[in-house]
Each structure stands twice: as C-alpha cells, then as structure tokens.
Amino acid sequence: MGSDDMKESTTRQILAREQERINAIHWYHEFDFPCGLKARSHGEVESHRTVWAFIERQLDGIDFTGKSVLDIGCWDGKWSFYAERRGAARVLASDDATQNWGRGEGLLLAKELFGSAIETRLDVSIYALDQLGETFDVVLCLGVYYHLIDPFYGFAQVRHRCNERSVVVFEGDVTTGIRANMAQIDLAEHSLPIFLPTPEALANLLKAAYLEPVSQTFLTPVVDLDHNRPPLPSNINRAVTICRDLFKAAYRKSMPQTSLAAVSDLDNKRARLPPGITRAVTICRPYHGANETHFYRPPFGLAAYDPRF
User: Fold this and answer.
1) Is 70 exposed, middle or buried (0-12, 13-18, 19+ CB in 10 A)?
2) Beta bridge pairs of residue 93
C-alpha cells in the first residue's frame, strides 16, 4: 500500500471514529459538520425541520454582526452556531442540562467539531439568569416559554439580561382556540405545553415584563375561533398537526421504551388542547418607562425600569 493510500485509509478510520462519537449521542438538533460528518435528530424530524426553517426566516432579518448573543435553552446549540456564523462577536449558549435528555453532550461535541468559539453554560435555567451578571445585545429564547410553570418570572429574568439596544426573540406555541387575552396553564401532563397563551396574552405578559413586542409572526395564518365559527380551515388543522407531531416526538424521545398503548393514552390527553395552535416568533425591545400594566410596584426587580417606583 502506497503512502497516499495509507493516508486515505487512516483518514477514513478517523472519520469513522468521529461519526461513531456523533452517533452515540441522542440529538435534538441536526448538523452537517466538516468532512461529511452528520448529526441527525432522533424521532419524527419533519415537524422539527418545519419549525426550524420558520425560526431561521425570522432570525435572518436580525443583524448579529459584532453583537453579544445569549441563547437561552440552547439544547444542542443550533441557534448559537447560527449566531456565530452570522458574525456575532460573542455567543453564550446557556441551558439547564438536567432539563433535557442530552445533558449537553451534543452541544459540546458540536462545538468541538465546528471549531467554534461559543461559550457554554449548562447549569443556568431561565429562572436563574441573574447568575450571568451581564447584558446582551441579542437574546434568543426559542422553544422555551411554553414549558414554564412561571413564564412571567422567566420573562422578567430575560428583561434583566437586556441593555437599552437589545433585541429579544421568543418562539413557541400560541392558540386562538380560547378567548383573546387568556392563557391555558396545565400542569397535569408535561408532554403537552404547560403554558399555552393566545397571541394577545403572550404580548401582554411580555409588556408586563417591560419587553415591548414589535412584531409577531406565525408559522401558519391564525384565525380567531369561537363556538359559532365554522370548522377549522385546513391551514390551522395543519398547524395543529405540526405541533402535535412535535409533542409526540418529544414524548417518544424522552421515553424511548414507551408502548404504543401509552402513546395512544397521550393522544387522548392531547384532546384537552384547544384548537387553533400554531407557533409564533415574537420580537421585542426592552421597555423603560411608566407601564400601564402595573398599578402597584411590579415584582422580580422590574420596578428598576419604571420611574414611578
């Protein structure tokens, strides 16, 4: 065997070992690494890809160049690496590794394989962002708020990580199947959204946290629903299907040995979800001034942004 053949064989062996390292991880995000190495999401991925493409279209309109970026609930780091590619000067990928199945292995391996300079903190939940002690130019909170028992406290923690010029991006489930300005909170089944707001309720809650929504974009067109309206249009039915596929995929990934009977039982539990569910990207700016939401002094340190208090 010639020297070139030996080098080629050695390279193939090295790449095979690297791919084995990748395959040993239970990925949520998907990546194409250098040298043809690939990480693929486990479970039902088409609905994930639909949502990821939707998010990316909205982020494409944000200037990351030279900015500091905080990615909250980063998981495997898809959006942290995206911000780095878009020219961010500094990216902090944060998560509470005890709250997902990956424990951070995917994020750390992806950082290694990309040769990335992002920073990582895998011991910080959205409720503990004060541990960071600094502010950021762009704050990403994607696929997080609907898992929260106390979303308002989470939003307040996000507000404290903002400077005067910050852009804050939230993404998650909303519904038009309940009365406007209302939200459903369901603590009985964590495979479903715990916090499911209407678009209006989400915007109002963000405003209460001194985050002013400047745009809200939906994965599919939204329609206001009530008991007197005709059946759901096909586009809303599609949104419901996408979201339910996401829930089913997450459930199967977190409990890979679950029987079909248990999955069917979860489908029955999903029947409690209101119609008209879709995903929304809500872009905010930090707000400073008299906030009509609060007649009394607001909690969670938010009074710092209101001259009345």
Assistant:
1) buried
2) 71, 120
Please give the Cα distance from 100 to 82 (Å, whole number).
21
Residue 150: CB atoms within 10 Å = 14
Q: What is the pTM (predicted TM-score) of this model?
A: 0.84
Residues of the chain predicted below pLDDT 70: 1-2, 4-6, 225-270
- Segment holding 207, helix H or strand E: helix 199-208
Q: What is the CA radius of gyration of the chain?
A: 21
Length of the chain in residues, anyone?
309
Question: What is the per-residue pLDDT for 8?
Answer: 77
Q: Residues near 288 by Cβ (< 8 Å), separated by ≥ 6? A: 164, 210, 305, 306
- How far apart CA 92 and CA 145 sit, in angstroms, is 19
pLDDT in tens, 57-71: 999 999 999 999 999
Contact 107, 74 (CB under 8 A): yes
| Spatial CA neighbour of 143 closest among 242, 72, 207, 241 | 72
Please tell me the distance from the alpha carbon of residue 172 to that of residue 51, in angstroms, as a whole number.
10
The pLDDT, as a whole number, for residue 212 is 98
The strand pair at 195-197 and 183-185 is best described as: antiparallel
User: Rounded to an integer, what distance in angstroms lies between the CA atom of residue 102 and that of residue 109?
Assistant: 11
Pairing of strands 90-94, 68-72: parallel
149: number of Cβ within 10 Å: 12
d(CA 6, CA 191): 51
Q: Structural domains in the chain?
A: 44-305 (3.40.50.150)
Please report the pLDDT score of residue 225 as a whole number: 61
Strand pairing class (38-39; 277-286):
unpaired
Q: How do residues 139-178 score in pLDDT, each as one tens digit?
A: 999 999 999 999 999 999 999 999 999 999 999 999 999 9
The interaxial angle of helices 78-85 and 46-59, nearest 10 deg, is 30
